[in-house]
Amino acid sequence: MHLTVYLAGEIHTDWRERIIAGAGDLPVIFTGPVTDHAASDDCGVRILGAEDRKFWHDHKGAQLNAIRTRKALADADIVVVRFGDKYRQWNAAFDAGYAAALGKSLVVMHGDDHQHALKEVDAAALAVAETPEQVVAILRYTLTGELP
Questions:
Q1: For residue 80, what are the β-bridge partners?
Q2: Which domains does the chain have, with CATH numbers?
Q3: Model confidence pLDDT, tens digit, residues 94-125
């Protein structure tokens, strides 16, 4: 058995790299959004042409990013959504809701400080982790039945 795991959420820390490194010996394919912030923001206007208004600039980018995100979420066996401390993660909340609506196995990752704000998202998840290492342990247990 192998798993496809979509890593959604904040792009300002190394949590993705820690999960990928920790799961290096497991049969897991990792996917995720474009994490280059400028490329993600500007993809629409770079591909489809400039816009005078920021709203349409952002709208084009969001639509093109949605093509990638929808495909990757649909193909995922497990969706891990990380909510970071520094910025509001509206995109992460949307990805979590979309994954839940698709019936995907959802793992949410955040610290205690977000517990109240994310209680509904947490309720939709099959697991709520605080660290990338806990996510790796979840993947290992899912694939092998082994405990840390």
A1: 7, 107
A2: 3-33+74-144 (3.40.50.450)
A3: 999 999 999 999 999 999 989 999 999 999 99
Contact 148, 138 (CB under 8 A): no
Q: Which residue has the tokens 């909340």?
A: 93
What's the alpha-carbon Rg for the chain, to the nearest Å?
Answer: 16
> For residues 66 and 95, is the Cβ–Cβ distance under 8 A?
no
**Region 57-73 average pLDDT:** 97
Give the number of other Cβ atoms within 10 Å of residue 148's Cβ.
8
Backbone dihedral angles phi then psi of residue 88, each to the nearest 5 degrees: -70, 135
Measured in degrees and rounded to the nearest 5, phi and psi for residue 70 equal -60, -45
Using alpha carbons, select from 112, 129, 114, 118 the residue that is nearest to residue 95.
Answer: 118
Quick one: 34 exposed, middle or buried, by C-beta within 10 A (0-12, 13-18, 19+)? middle
